[in-house]
Amino acid sequence: MHKYLPHTHEDIKAMLEKIGVNDIDALFAEIPKALLNKDIDIPSSMSELEIFDHMNHLASSNKPLIPFIGAGAYDHYTPSIIRHLIERQEFLTAYTPYQPEISQGTLQYIFEFQSMITQLTGMDVSNASMYDGATATAEAMFMACAQRRKDKILVSQTVNPNIVEVIKTYARYKGIEVVMVAEKEGITDLESVRLTLDSETAGLIVQTPNFYGNIENYSEFKATLDEHKALFIINQDPSTLGHLKTPRAWGADIAVGDCQTLGVPLSFGGPYIGYMATTTKYMRKMPGRICGVTKDTDGKRAFVLTLQAREQHIRREKANSNICSNQSLLALFVTIYMALLGKKGVYEVQQRSIDNAHYLEEALLKLPSFEKVYPQPFFKEFTLRTHLDIDTMLKKLEEKGYLGPLPLRRYANDKTDLVTFAVTEKRSKKQIDEFVSILGGLS
Amino acid sequence: MYYDKLIFEISTEGRKGYTLPTPEIKRYDLPETLLRDDCPGLPEVSELDVVRHYTNVSFKNFGIEKGFYPLGSCTMKYNPKINQDMSNLPGFTSIHPYQPIETMQGLLHVYYETQRMLSEISGLDTFTLNSYAGAHGELVGLMIMKAYHESRGDFKRKKVIVPDSAHGTNPASATVAGLESVEVKSNKDGTVNVNDLKAVLDDEVAGIMLTNPNTAGIFEKDILTIAKLVHDAGGLLYYDGANLNPLLGIARPGDMGFDIMHINLHKTFSTPHGGGGPGSGPVGVNKKLVKFLPKPVIEKHEEGYTIDYDGDALTIGQISHFYGNAGVYLKAYTYLLTIGKENLPNVARYSTLNANYIKESLKDVYHLPIEGVCKHEFVFDGLKDKSTGVKTLDIAKRLLDFDMHPPTVYFPLTFKEAIMIEPPENESKQTIDRFIDVMRSIAKEAIENPEKVKGAPYNTVVKRLDEALAARNPIVKYKDLLEQ
Predict the structure, then answer these.
(1) Tens place of pLDDT for every residue, chain B, 484 residues?
(2) Any idea what DSSP says for residue B252?
(3) All domains of chain B in start order, with CATH
(4) Sign of the torsion formed by the C-alpha atoms of B437, B443, B447 and B448
(5) Span(s) in chain A for CATH 3.90.1150.10
C-alpha cells in the first residue's frame, strides 16, 4: 500500500471479478512483450520525513541574494494573503472552466483580471493570460501577421534580448521575417522605423521601459505606422501603468507584457504570467481564453468562456495560435495583488521603486567608477557605464549577499562596459547605502 | 446564499489593502509628458474585503478535494499538499534566475534530476523543462521535428500525420510550427489504420503525432509496425503525453520508437491544474535530436551544474524567457520521490483497473462503442437507450447535482455523444461505486423522467448558461457592464 493508492486486496479482487479477468496484468496483455519490464533508474519511495530533509537540504544549497538586478525578473513585495487565497483547493485543483456551472469562481476572477488589465493598459479587451511576457509578445506577432496577412515584423533593438530570441524562434518556424530596428541614445529610433517600414510589414514591436530601463516616447510612432497599415505592439511592464502613459494612449493595437512585476515571486524564472490586450477591432483575432458575461436560464448573471470560434479546439489546423490553457492561477494571484493595491496603490508602491532607483543612480554617479550613458528618463531600472572589472564587482557583491547588475556584454559587442541595475520598493535605504559603499570600496 | 458581487462592486472610495514602510528616501518625479492623466480604475477595498471576496468566489468552484473528477484525458489526480509546501520553500521561491550558478545548485539539481527521471520513465534520452504547458511542448517538439529535417537539407518534409481522434491542439501546433497536418481516419477503436497510414507516407512526411493509448483509451498494439513504417519513410514519431499515466513503469514511448514527446506534469505527475495553468510541458527527445533542444540548457558536470545559455549550434532557439515553470517542476520532483520506483507501475495498474471496472459496471446502460480492455480511460457514446432524447450534455449537467465533476464530453470527435471517463489511481472503490450508482440512476431517470435530466443542473449556483448571448454581445470587462 501507498498513501496515494487506496486499493486493498479485497477491492482489487472484487473489481477484477466484475471485469472478468484473473489479474491486473491481463489488462496489459495487448502490449508487445518486448516493451515490458524495462529497468527504470529512479529512487525508491521516500517518506514525508525524508522528503522534508532532502528538499530542505536542496533549498539551503541555494543562496538567496538581495537583487539589484531585474532583466525580466523583479523583486517586488508579495502581500501575505495572496498565497493563502490562491492555494484554496477550489482555485488550485480545478481544471480549465469547461463546466461553467461549477466553475463560476475561476470564470469570475478571469473576468476581474481582464477588467483590471484593461484599466491598466487602457485597451478594450484582455485575454485570460499567456505563459509569460516573451511568449505573449511572440503571439502578438502571430496575431499581427494573421490580421495583416503579411509575414514581416519589425522589432526594436531596445527590446529585452530574451524576448527577441523567443520572437525569432516563433517567427523562424512560421516563416515570418524579423527585422531589427536600430536604437538611438538608448531608445527606439523613429527614423530607423521609417526607413525599415514597407508595405510588407505587419507590425512593429517595442518595449517600454525598455531593456536598458529607459522610458520610450512614442509620440509620432502611430502616425508613421498607419502610413503602412502596420500594427503597433507595445510590451510594457504593467506595474509602471500607475504612472506612465498607457499603450492605448500611444496608439497601440496590441499591448503585451509580463505581470511578474505585480508581486509574483522570483522563483528561478517561473511560473510568471504574460498578459495580452487589444482593441475591440482586433478582439476576434486575439489568441487565448476570453471570459464574458451571460445569463443562466433563470436570468441570473453568470460568466462563461466566450468567442471560442477563435480557438484551437474549434479551428484546429486553421487556428492562429495553439494556446489552450495559460497561467490561470497566476491571473488570480495578480488580480488579488491589484485589488489590494487598488486605484492609488500601483502608483504609490511603484513611486517607491522610482525613488529608490533614482537615489541609487545619484549615489553611483558620485563614484568615480560609474558614468551616465543615456540621457533618457527611467523608471526602476537604469544602465550605467562602469570602469570596474565587472566580474570582480559581481563577486564582491555576492560575498556580501547582493546580486549585482546585469552586464550587457553578453548581448552586445559595443556594450562590454555597461551594466543595468534594477531597484524595487523592497530595497531599504540601508541596503542601498551598503550596496553603494561596497561598490565605492572597489573604486 | 449566492455571492454574486464583483470586486469592483464592493469598492469604497479611500479604502486600501496594503502597507508601505515609512519613506526614508526623497521623492523623485518623472517628467509630466510621460505620465498618464488618469488613475487606473482599480477597486478600493480593505484586506478583509479582499479575503472575504475571494473566499466567497472560491465557493463557486469545484475542486478535486471536494469530489470525484473523472475528466477524460486530463488525469485529475490528487495534488499532494507536500508538493505545495516544498515548492514554497523560500530557498526556491526567492532565487533570481540570473544568480551565479554556484548559488543555485539546489534548483539546478531539481531541474536536472526531474528531466533525468522523466527520461528514465519515458525511454527517451534528454528532456527540456523550459516549455510551459502541453500545447507549448507540442509546439517545441514540432519545431525540433522540422529543424531535424532541415538540418539534413530536407526542406520538403512539411506533412504531419494526425489521427482524426486527436485533440485540436495537435493540428493547431503543426500549423504554428509552419507544418501542415494531414488527417488520417482511425479504425473503429480509434487506433491507427495501418493501410491508410501507408497510403499517406511519402517523402514529404515530417512525422506523425500520436497519443498511446489513444483518446479512446486503446493501446496501439501495432505501434512497432507503425514506428517502422514511419521511420522507413524518413519521418519521426511524436508522442503526445496526455495519456502517459497507464504506461508509467510498464512500457516506455522511447522503446516503442517515438523520437520526440511531451509530458504534462499537471496530468501525470500530480501538479495542480490551477483552473487552467500554470502547467509544465517538458519535451523529451532521443539521442539524435538532443542538439535541437531549446536553450538555455542545464548541464551536469563533475564539479556541479551549469547553464548553457547558447545551446548547440543546431538548437531551435529560445522558447521561454528563463527556464520554464520551476514552481511546477518542483512539485513533480517531490511527487516522483514520494511515489518512487516501486509504486510507479501501480499508478498505471490501478488507474487501468478503475477504468475497466467502471466500463464493465455501466456498459449495460451506456453505449460502449469499443468492446475489450481499455487502459486508464474509455469512451461511452451516450445512453444505450436512444429513445429518451437525453443527450450526453444532459447527463453531464445532471452529474453536477450529485457533487461530481462530469467526464470529458463531446471528445473525441469520432463519437457523436462521447462521454470520456478517466478515474485516476487515487480513487478508491467506494468513490467509484458511488459514481457508478449515480450514473445508473441518471440512466434510469432518463427513461422515467427525461425532462428532469434535460433540465439539469438544479443544485448548482447557476443553471445552464446562454453561451450564444455571450458571443453575440461580448461583455468582457467591468466597464462594459457599467455601460450596458
Answers:
(1) 789 999 999 999 999 999 999 999 999 999 999 999 999 999 999 999 999 999 999 999 999 999 999 999 999 999 999 999 999 999 999 999 999 999 999 999 999 999 999 999 999 999 999 999 999 999 999 999 999 999 999 999 999 999 988 888 899 999 999 999 999 988 988 899 999 999 999 999 999 999 999 999 999 999 999 999 999 999 999 999 999 999 999 999 999 999 999 999 999 999 999 999 999 999 999 999 999 999 999 999 999 999 999 999 999 999 999 999 999 999 999 999 999 999 999 999 999 999 999 999 999 999 999 999 999 999 999 999 999 999 999 999 999 999 999 999 998 888 999 999 999 999 999 999 999 999 999 999 999 999 999 999 999 999 999 989 999 999 999 999 999 8
(2) -
(3) 7-58 (no CATH), 82-337 (3.40.640.10), 344-468 (3.90.1150.10)
(4) positive
(5) 66-75+343-442
Q: Which ranges in chain A are annotated with CATH 3.40.640.10?
A: 80-337
Q: Which residues of chain B make contact with A16, given a CB cutoff of 8 A?
A: 353
DSSP secondary structure string, A170-239? HHHHHT-EEEEEPEETTEE-HHHHHHH--TTEEEEEEEES-TTSBPP--TTHHHHHHHTT-EEEEEE-GG
| Class in CATH terms, A66-75+343-442 | alpha beta
Chain B residues whose CB is inside 8 A of the A108 CB are 6, 57, 60
The residue of chain A nearest to residue B328, with distances taken between CA atoms, is A271
User: CB B219 to CB A60 under 8 A?
Assistant: no
Burial group, residue A195, by CB count within 10 angstroms (0-12, 13-18, 19+): exposed
Which residues from chain A sit within 8 angstroms of residue B327, using beta carbons? 267, 270-271
> Which member of A31, A41, A115 has the closest CB to residue B120?
A41
CATH 3.90.1150.10 fits A80-337, yes or no: no
Least Cα distance to B470 among A108, A106, A290 occurs for A290
User: Does the beta-carbon distance from A355 to B347 stay under 8 Å?
Assistant: no
Query: Which cell numbers in the block locate residue A331?
Result: 491571473
Nearest CA in chain A to B429: A11
Residues of B in contact with A335 (CB under 8 A): 7
